Amino acid sequence: LTARKLKRVHGMRSQGTNDMRKHLSLYPETKIVRLYHHSSSLKEYLLVTNESGRIDGDSILRQLALETLDSLQKVLFPLDHKSMILLKSMVLIKNWDPDCVECNSIEYRREDEKEIRYHYLSDRLMALFGEAENRRPHGTW
């Protein structure tokens, strides 16, 4: 379920958003997937909460930040050459956060966060996967 495959095979387009609540929002009628691309702010938040060691309400936001970062760096834009070219073009042409191409997030993770489960974004990832697998016609006769 990479952004490259969604674009090439299914004709979907990635559109950046400044609103983290809209990350992975799918608009089937226009074939647009909105992506929160401000990875530098996600990493900064993870770094601050990693150092604080707090476990209260930060854990929900931390989990969401990890899921958002992972969905960008591991799912949609993995480390293969062609995905990186697409991501770099989004940075240059669409003004995405240049930090998106820096994929080392290990320093922002706690020991128990090496691999994460998607709790908050799983429905959106499944909807995106479903749309890609069940391509339905969007035109009219």
* Gap from first CA to last CA: 30 Å
Mean pLDDT: 86
Output the number of helix runs.
5
Strand order of the largest sheet: 1-3-2
Total beta strands: 3
> How would the global form be characterised?
globular
- The chain-level structural class is mainly alpha
Structural domain tally? 1
Q: Which regions have little confidence, pLDDT < 50, spanning 5+ residues? A: none
Alpha carbon gyration radius: 16 Å
Sketch the major β-sheet.
3 strands, mixed
Kindly describe this structure.
The structure is a single chain. The protein is mainly alpha-helical and 141 residues long. It has one domain. The protein is 46% helix and 9% strand. The chain has helices spanning 3-8, 39-52, 58-76, 81-94, 122-133; strands spanning 13-17, 25-27, 32-36. A three-stranded mixed β-sheet has the order 1-3-2. The longest helix has 19 residues, at 58-76.
How is the secondary structure organized here?
Blueprint: H1 3-8, E1 13-17, E2 25-27, E3 32-36, H2 39-52, H3 58-76, H4 81-94, H5 122-133
